[in-house]
Design goal:
Distance between the termini: 40 Å
Strand content: 5-15%
Shape: globular
CATH superfamily: Winged helix-like DNA-binding domain superfamily/Winged helix DNA-binding domain
Number of strands: 3
Largest sheet: 3 strands, antiparallel
Helix content: 55-70%
CATH class: Mainly Alpha
Length: 114
């Protein structure tokens, strides 16, 4: 994903952390419970393995998710949200609430025009 240039207000930096179609959904899922790669793939229909891998790596680099490898005959890898990721998820919750209100406002405006 192409990164936005940093700006003085921090918005570009925030958008880099959540940018793309999948990062907010990945963050939501690992916030609910630790998830294995295959489980995330099933929970996010339409995401390719390549994109999921890329998004998880970027989120790990940004310290939003933790990748934990469990030793064993079959290597188990689990992704979970970090405390830093929880703070971003809270901010996304506020944005989601705003979006729902905006959808209702726009729907009401359309009804008034009809």
């Amino acid at each position: 994903m192409k990164r936005l240039q940093q700006d003085g207000c921090g918005l570009a930096t925030a958008l880099n952390a959540i940018g793309g179609k999948w990062k907010t959904m990945i963050l939501w899922e690992v916030n609910l419970a630790p998830r294995r790669f295959g489980e995330l793939k099933r929970l996010l229909p339409g995401i390719s393995e390549k994109v999921l891998t890329q998004q998880l790596r970027e989120m790990e680099t940004d310290a939003l998710v933790r990748r934990e490898v469990f030793p064993g005959a079959v290597q188990k890898v689990e992704y979970s949200v970090t405390p830093y990721g929880v703070s971003l998820n809270e901010a996304i919750g506020v944005l989601s609430h705003w979006g729902k209100q905006h959808e209702q406002r726009m729907a009401a405006a359309e009804r008034n025009l009809a």
